[in-house]
């Protein structure tokens, strides 16, 4: 499973609905003052075949 962040309030050049998938950026946001401006979304990667 992968965790991403979805922006719910704009900040730092990110708009509402933007998805943050970079692990380093995710950690930076969650440790900072903008943590309340995002929600965590967990996705499961499935292969269709």
Describe the structure.
With 49 residues, the chain is of the alpha+beta class. Helices cover 18% and strands 29% of the residues. It contains one helix and three strands, in the order ββαβ. It has one helix at residues 23-31, and strands at 2-7, 19-20, 38-43. Strands 2-1-3 form a three-stranded antiparallel sheet. The longest helix is centred in the middle third of the chain and has 9 residues, at 23-31. It starts with a strand and ends in a 6-residue tail after the last strand. The relative contact order is 0.36. The model has no long low-confidence stretch (mean pLDDT 92).
Structure, briefly:
It contains one helix and three strands.
Give the SSE map.
Layout lengths: L1 E6 L11 E2 L2 H9 L6 E6 L6
Structural class: alpha+beta
H/E topology pattern: EEHE
The spatial strand order of the largest sheet comes to 2-1-3
What's the total count of β strands? 3
Count the DSSP helices.
1
**Nearest-integer average pLDDT:** 92
Oligomer: single chain
* Main pleated sheet: 3 strands, antiparallel
Which of globular, elongated, flat, extended, rod-shaped describes the shape? globular
The low-confidence runs, each spanning 5 or more residues with pLDDT under 50, are none
């Amino acid at each position: 499973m992968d965790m991403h962040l979805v922006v719910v309030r704009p900040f730092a050049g990110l708009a509402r609905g933007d998805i943050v998938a970079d692990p380093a950026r995710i950690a930076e946001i969650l440790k900072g003052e903008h943590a309340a401006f995002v929600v965590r979304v967990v996705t499961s990667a499935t292969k269709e075949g």
